Structure formats: structure tokens, C-alpha cells
Amino acid sequence: RALKSKKLIRHNLLIEELTINGINLDAILAVCLLTDGSMQVKNRHYRLSYYTTDAVLEKVIASLFNKVSWNVPKITYTKKGNLIRLSDTELGKRMNQLSPNFKTSPSWNYQTKEDYLREPPPTLSFLSSCSLETRIWAVRFAFSADGCISFPKNQKPTLELACYHPTLSLEWKKLFSELGLNPHISYRRDSWCGIAGVRLYSHSC
Question: Which of 160, 164, 129 is nearest to 143 (CA)?
Fold first, then answer.
């Protein structure tokens, strides 16, 4: 029954291409969880989720979940967007081997900023052991979720990745530098940590 249900999730051509080219799909999923995703852990239960308002990205992420897990992802449709969810203990443990935490901001209803910063921080360090192609695709998935590009008059194009986390922003900056880009940390007063993410100015970006 499980295999029959999984066939109902259409294989996305992009995910099939990444698989054929040897892209590390676990690393791609971890980046997705660190942007518009999340992972809740309760006892031995792991629930992985991804939220998007984009119909194309919804199909890509659902196919990605379907590819890396034996379980069947569920999609909940709302007026504000679509939520892709998957419960998988083994996959959750694999994700925790890449990053000890996927929560990128304090849970304000019960947690102070100081308490949150005492937790193990989320990290992108797992990408350092991945191939160049995997790192490039990780950046593409991140920008598909939290990125934007602008073309101000008489100025260079601006490429921005939103990331309201102090160490993650620095890790994104380091990764972009390794890929030959010239990133800068951007700041925002209403961010919980004062950081808004990473910004790049370039005629070629």
C-alpha cells in the first residue's frame, strides 16, 4: 500500500536530474529545512515540514521528500500557502547528523533570545564536504525560498538571501565567497539578532 501511495507523487524532472548527476539530496533537503522548512522532534518521532506559496516549488519539494524517504509526504493546501509534511525517524536522524538543530529563531511563546542562543546552533558546515555541484544546487534551493533580486536604477543588481540568524548568515557568506562571489552581511533593526542576511552587488549576479 505504501509503494502504491508513493507512485501517486509524481517524480519531478529536476529531482530525477539531480539524482542522476549524483547530487547529495540529503544535503539539499537540509538546506530546505534551514530556509522555509522545519523539523520537530518529540521522543522518537521526527516530522519534517516545508511551507511554500509557489506551486512549482511545492511539486519539487514533494518529489524530494518522496525520493529520500520510504514514507509518503502529505500536502495540506491553505489560502496562505501549501505545507508539505513527512514523518520519518530515520530521515530525521540523518538530518541531525548534518545539523544538530534546524530552528533558526527563538520560539517566542516560551523562549528568550538568551535561552535560544544556548542551544546547539543550526549549521551549514555539512556542505563543506559536498561536491561543488551539490553546493551550487544548495544555493539555488536557498534562493528559491528566501532569496530575491532587484535592479535599482543607476546601480548594480542586488541579490539578497534573507537569514535572521547570526552564525548561519556568516556561514552563507563564507560559502558564497568560496563560490567566487563577494558577499556582505546585511543588517535590520527589527531582526531578533540585528542581522537580515547576505547581500551581493554585481553586474554579473
Answer: 160
